[in-house]
Design goal:
This protein is an alpha/beta fold and 208 residues long. The chain contains nine helices and six strands. The strands form two sheets. A four-stranded parallel beta sheet has the order 4-3-5-6, with helices on both faces. A two-stranded parallel ribbon has the order 1-2. The longest helix is centred in the middle third of the chain and has 19 residues. The radius of gyration is 18 Å and the shape is globular.
Protein backbone atom coordinates (compact mmCIF):
# COMPACT_ATOMS: atom_id res chain seq x y z
CA UNK A 1 0.00 0.00 0.00
CA UNK A 2 1.26 3.47 -0.86
CA UNK A 3 1.78 5.27 2.47
CA UNK A 4 -0.68 8.10 3.26
CA UNK A 5 0.49 11.62 4.05
CA UNK A 6 -2.01 13.91 5.75
CA UNK A 7 -2.23 17.65 5.13
CA UNK A 8 -4.92 20.09 6.16
CA UNK A 9 -6.37 21.32 2.82
CA UNK A 10 -4.49 21.01 -0.48
CA UNK A 11 -2.00 23.83 -0.03
CA UNK A 12 0.75 21.79 1.64
CA UNK A 13 0.48 19.13 -1.06
CA UNK A 14 1.02 21.72 -3.77
CA UNK A 15 3.92 23.26 -1.83
CA UNK A 16 5.65 19.87 -1.63
CA UNK A 17 5.10 19.19 -5.32
CA UNK A 18 6.43 22.63 -6.28
CA UNK A 19 9.53 22.15 -4.10
CA UNK A 20 10.26 18.77 -5.70
CA UNK A 21 9.98 20.29 -9.17
CA UNK A 22 12.17 23.25 -8.28
CA UNK A 23 15.02 21.09 -6.98
CA UNK A 24 14.56 18.35 -9.61
CA UNK A 25 13.61 15.72 -7.04
CA UNK A 26 11.34 12.73 -7.50
CA UNK A 27 7.80 13.40 -6.37
CA UNK A 28 6.72 11.76 -3.12
CA UNK A 29 5.26 8.32 -3.74
CA UNK A 30 2.42 8.72 -1.29
CA UNK A 31 -1.36 8.93 -1.07
CA UNK A 32 -2.34 12.43 -0.01
CA UNK A 33 -5.13 12.68 2.54
CA UNK A 34 -6.89 15.95 3.39
CA UNK A 35 -7.74 16.22 7.09
CA UNK A 36 -10.04 19.17 6.35
CA UNK A 37 -12.20 16.86 4.19
CA UNK A 38 -12.21 14.33 7.02
CA UNK A 39 -13.16 16.91 9.65
CA UNK A 40 -15.95 18.27 7.45
CA UNK A 41 -17.50 14.82 7.21
CA UNK A 42 -17.03 13.70 10.80
CA UNK A 43 -18.03 16.87 12.68
CA UNK A 44 -21.15 18.37 11.12
CA UNK A 45 -20.47 21.85 12.49
CA UNK A 46 -17.50 22.11 10.10
CA UNK A 47 -19.29 20.80 7.01
CA UNK A 48 -19.73 24.23 5.46
CA UNK A 49 -17.55 26.61 7.45
CA UNK A 50 -15.00 26.94 10.22
CA UNK A 51 -12.86 23.98 9.18
CA UNK A 52 -9.54 25.84 9.21
CA UNK A 53 -6.86 24.10 11.26
CA UNK A 54 -6.63 26.91 13.82
CA UNK A 55 -10.37 26.91 14.48
CA UNK A 56 -10.77 23.14 14.78
CA UNK A 57 -7.66 22.82 16.97
CA UNK A 58 -9.03 25.52 19.27
CA UNK A 59 -12.35 23.70 19.56
CA UNK A 60 -10.57 20.42 20.32
CA UNK A 61 -8.31 22.01 22.93
CA UNK A 62 -5.15 21.49 20.85
CA UNK A 63 -2.56 24.17 21.63
CA UNK A 64 -0.15 24.93 18.81
CA UNK A 65 1.74 27.77 17.12
CA UNK A 66 -0.20 28.31 13.90
CA UNK A 67 1.80 28.73 10.65
CA UNK A 68 4.85 27.00 12.12
CA UNK A 69 5.33 23.98 9.84
CA UNK A 70 6.16 21.48 12.60
CA UNK A 71 3.39 22.78 14.84
CA UNK A 72 0.84 22.64 12.00
CA UNK A 73 1.87 19.05 11.30
CA UNK A 74 1.52 18.12 14.97
CA UNK A 75 -1.94 19.71 15.22
CA UNK A 76 -3.05 17.95 12.03
CA UNK A 77 -1.86 14.61 13.40
CA UNK A 78 -3.71 15.19 16.68
CA UNK A 79 -6.87 16.12 14.77
CA UNK A 80 -6.69 12.91 12.73
CA UNK A 81 -6.01 10.80 15.81
CA UNK A 82 -9.10 12.30 17.43
CA UNK A 83 -11.24 11.40 14.43
CA UNK A 84 -9.84 7.86 14.27
CA UNK A 85 -10.51 7.37 17.97
CA UNK A 86 -14.05 8.78 17.91
CA UNK A 87 -15.11 7.13 14.65
CA UNK A 88 -13.37 3.80 15.28
CA UNK A 89 -12.51 3.78 11.58
CA UNK A 90 -9.09 3.29 10.02
CA UNK A 91 -7.09 5.46 7.64
CA UNK A 92 -8.21 3.48 4.59
CA UNK A 93 -11.83 3.87 5.66
CA UNK A 94 -11.39 7.62 5.84
CA UNK A 95 -9.59 7.80 2.52
CA UNK A 96 -12.75 6.39 0.99
CA UNK A 97 -15.23 8.24 3.21
CA UNK A 98 -13.60 11.65 2.65
CA UNK A 99 -14.27 11.29 -1.06
CA UNK A 100 -18.02 10.94 -0.51
CA UNK A 101 -20.37 13.93 -1.05
CA UNK A 102 -21.36 16.08 1.89
CA UNK A 103 -24.72 17.46 0.74
CA UNK A 104 -26.57 20.52 -0.43
CA UNK A 105 -27.70 22.07 -3.71
CA UNK A 106 -25.57 24.49 -5.68
CA UNK A 107 -26.53 28.01 -6.67
CA UNK A 108 -24.66 29.81 -9.41
CA UNK A 109 -25.06 33.28 -10.83
CA UNK A 110 -22.64 35.30 -12.98
CA UNK A 111 -19.15 33.88 -13.47
CA UNK A 112 -17.64 36.45 -11.12
CA UNK A 113 -20.28 35.77 -8.48
CA UNK A 114 -20.32 32.00 -8.21
CA UNK A 115 -21.13 30.10 -5.04
CA UNK A 116 -18.87 27.18 -4.18
CA UNK A 117 -19.76 23.52 -4.47
CA UNK A 118 -20.32 22.32 -0.90
CA UNK A 119 -18.62 19.02 -1.76
CA UNK A 120 -15.50 20.73 -3.14
CA UNK A 121 -12.16 20.41 -1.35
CA UNK A 122 -11.86 24.22 -1.17
CA UNK A 123 -15.38 24.91 0.08
CA UNK A 124 -15.39 28.01 2.28
CA UNK A 125 -12.60 29.78 0.38
CA UNK A 126 -13.37 33.03 -1.46
CA UNK A 127 -11.33 33.48 -4.61
CA UNK A 128 -10.65 36.39 -6.95
CA UNK A 129 -8.68 36.40 -10.22
CA UNK A 130 -6.41 39.12 -11.55
CA UNK A 131 -4.62 39.29 -14.90
CA UNK A 132 -4.98 37.21 -18.05
CA UNK A 133 -5.28 33.45 -17.70
CA UNK A 134 -4.36 30.69 -20.13
CA UNK A 135 -7.98 29.53 -20.05
CA UNK A 136 -11.10 31.65 -20.45
CA UNK A 137 -12.00 33.51 -17.25
CA UNK A 138 -15.49 32.02 -17.13
CA UNK A 139 -14.00 28.52 -17.42
CA UNK A 140 -11.51 29.18 -14.62
CA UNK A 141 -14.29 30.63 -12.46
CA UNK A 142 -16.44 27.55 -13.00
CA UNK A 143 -13.56 25.23 -12.12
CA UNK A 144 -12.91 27.22 -8.95
CA UNK A 145 -16.60 27.04 -8.07
CA UNK A 146 -16.67 23.29 -8.73
CA UNK A 147 -13.70 22.95 -6.35
CA UNK A 148 -15.70 24.73 -3.64
CA UNK A 149 -14.59 28.36 -3.91
CA UNK A 150 -16.93 31.31 -3.87
CA UNK A 151 -15.72 33.34 -6.87
CA UNK A 152 -15.96 37.12 -6.66
CA UNK A 153 -14.89 39.97 -8.89
CA UNK A 154 -13.58 42.44 -6.31
CA UNK A 155 -11.25 42.32 -3.33
CA UNK A 156 -12.76 42.50 0.15
CA UNK A 157 -11.96 41.14 3.60
CA UNK A 158 -13.82 37.95 2.61
CA UNK A 159 -11.20 37.05 -0.03
CA UNK A 160 -8.88 34.22 1.00
CA UNK A 161 -7.23 33.33 -2.35
CA UNK A 162 -5.90 35.59 -5.11
CA UNK A 163 -4.98 33.88 -8.38
CA UNK A 164 -2.51 35.99 -10.36
CA UNK A 165 -2.39 35.60 -14.12
CA UNK A 166 -0.24 37.45 -16.68
CA UNK A 167 -0.35 41.19 -16.15
CA UNK A 168 -0.74 43.68 -19.00
CA UNK A 169 1.98 46.26 -18.34
CA UNK A 170 0.03 48.93 -20.21
CA UNK A 171 -2.84 48.59 -17.75
CA UNK A 172 -0.57 48.71 -14.71
CA UNK A 173 0.25 52.39 -15.33
CA UNK A 174 3.83 52.23 -14.16
CA UNK A 175 3.29 49.77 -11.29
CA UNK A 176 4.34 46.14 -11.17
CA UNK A 177 1.13 44.73 -9.68
CA UNK A 178 -2.56 45.07 -10.41
CA UNK A 179 -4.93 47.03 -8.19
CA UNK A 180 -6.42 43.77 -6.87
CA UNK A 181 -2.94 42.44 -6.09
CA UNK A 182 -2.02 45.60 -4.18
CA UNK A 183 -5.31 45.58 -2.26
CA UNK A 184 -4.72 41.96 -1.23
CA UNK A 185 -1.22 42.83 -0.01
CA UNK A 186 -2.76 45.61 2.07
CA UNK A 187 -5.18 43.10 3.59
CA UNK A 188 -2.30 40.76 4.42
CA UNK A 189 -0.37 43.61 6.01
CA UNK A 190 -3.38 44.40 8.19
CA UNK A 191 -3.58 40.83 9.47
CA UNK A 192 -5.93 39.05 7.06
CA UNK A 193 -4.95 35.57 5.81
CA UNK A 194 -4.93 35.60 2.00
CA UNK A 195 -2.95 33.23 -0.20
CA UNK A 196 -1.50 34.69 -3.41
CA UNK A 197 -0.97 31.93 -5.99
CA UNK A 198 -0.23 31.55 -9.71
CA UNK A 199 -2.59 30.06 -12.27
CA UNK A 200 -0.52 26.85 -12.36
CA UNK A 201 -0.73 26.57 -8.56
CA UNK A 202 -4.49 27.11 -8.83
CA UNK A 203 -4.79 24.26 -11.34
CA UNK A 204 -2.75 22.00 -9.08
CA UNK A 205 -4.98 22.84 -6.12
CA UNK A 206 -8.09 21.83 -8.00
CA UNK A 207 -6.21 18.83 -9.45
CA UNK A 208 -6.83 19.52 -13.13
Amino acid sequence: MVPPVVSHTSFDRVAFERAMLRYDLEQLQVTWMDSAKVARRWWTQYAKRGYGLKNIASDLGIDFNHHDALEDARATAMLMLRVLEESELGIQDWLEKSASPISGPRQTIAYENLSGNVDGDLYGETLVFTGALAMARHEAAQKASDAGCNVVGTVSTKVSILVVGTQNKHKLKGTTKSTKHRKVEELIASGHEVRIISESDFLDLIEI
